[in-house]
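ok trying this again, last paste got cut off
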Amino acid sequence: MSKTKNSSVHFLVALVAAHLSFAATAARAEDGVLRVGIITDMSGQYADGNGPGSVIAAQMAAEEIGGTVAGRKIEIISADHQNKPDVATGIVRNWIDTKGVDVIAEGVNSAVALAIQTVTRERKKLFLISGSGSSDLTGKQCSPTSVQWTYDTYASSNATAKAVVARGGTPWFFLTADYAFGQALERDASKAVTTAGGKVLGAVRHPFDTADFSSFLLQAQSSGAKILALANAGSDFRNAVSQADEFNIRAGMQLVALQVTLTDVPALGLAHAHDLLFTDSFYWDRTPETRAFAQEFFKRHGAMPTAYQAGVNSALRHYFKAVAATNSTDSEAVIAQMRKTPVNDFFAQNGVVREDGRMVHDMYLMRIKKPEESKSKWDLYEYLATVPGDQAFRPLDEGGCPYIAKAH
C-alpha cells in the first residue's frame, strides 16, 4: 500500500473513532443522568480527611435535592487518584470522554488538582475543588470552569500569621512539604508574616510522606527562630508535631500549624496537638446548622466531617441549584449562575464565587484544646475569631489569573 493510501486509511480510522466517541458522549448526555465524579485519595495519607467521607458528602448533597435535578437522575461515581497527577488525569479524561461525567469534584493534593484543572479547562468541564489548597489554582493557573471552594494557602496562612505576629510571635522558620501545596503555603505565609512586621529566618523542605523528621527539626531548632511554622498536612503534619515533642522543640519555639485537618487531631492526640493555632473554613460544632449536617454525616461515616468533606457537600449543593435554575448542565451557563447566586448554607453565609474561581467566605481562627478541656473525641477546637472573607482571601487583582487579566 502506498504512503498516501496508508495515510488516508489512518485518517478515516481516526475520523470514525472520533465520530463514535462523540456519538457515545452525546448519547450519554441525553440519557437523563447527571454524573458527578468524585476523585480523591482513597488509600493514602489524606484518605481519612477526604476519601470515602467526601463521597458520602456528595451522596448527601444529591439526596438533599431529591436525587434528581433538571429532569436528570444524579449519579455519583468515585475513584482513587493515589496522589499521582498522571493517574488522576487519566481517570478524569476517561470520565469525560467515555463516561459522560458532567462535573468533577474534590481533587485533594494540590499537584493532583493542578493537573486535573488542566484537563477540565481543556474539556470545558466544571471542577469543584475542595481538598486542594494551593492558591495558584485561582492565581496564575486559574480556570474559567473551576471553583476552589473550601480554603486556600493564602487564607489559611494569612489570618494565622497576622494573629501570631500580633502576639509577638517572630522570627519564623518553616518546615515545608516539598510539593505545590507546601510551597504555596510557605510563600503565602512568609508574605503575611513580613507584611505584619515579622521576620522569616529560613525554611527547610521535606519530601512528601516523610517518616523521620529529626534532621529537619534540628535545622529548625538551630535557626534561632521563635516560631516553627508547619507548612504540611496529613501524616506529614502529624509526624512533625509528635517528633517535635520528642526533641523538646516547644521549649524554645512555638509551633504554628498552617493547615490542620479535623481527623489529624484524634490521630495525633491532644497531648501533642494542644494549643496549636490555625485558621479553618468549617468546624462541625460551631453553629446549629453545622451540627445538624455533622450529625447526619456521622451516622453514615462514624466520624465528624472535615472542612474538605463539608466543602464537597456545599459546593455540590450550589452546583445542583444552578443546574436547576438554568435547566442545563452546560458548564458556562451553570458557572455563570453559580457566580451570581450568593452561597448561603451550613458552610457559608453570603459566600461569593468570584471570576477567578475563588469562593470567598469567612474563615475562623481556632485553637486546639488541651486534653482536660475536651469533653469527647470530636470536641477538639476552641473558636477564637471570625476573619471576614474579604480579609482572609487574596484580593482578586493580586492573584495573576490570566483570563481575568484579559477580560479587564
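PB: full thing came through this time. The longest strand covers residues 72-80.
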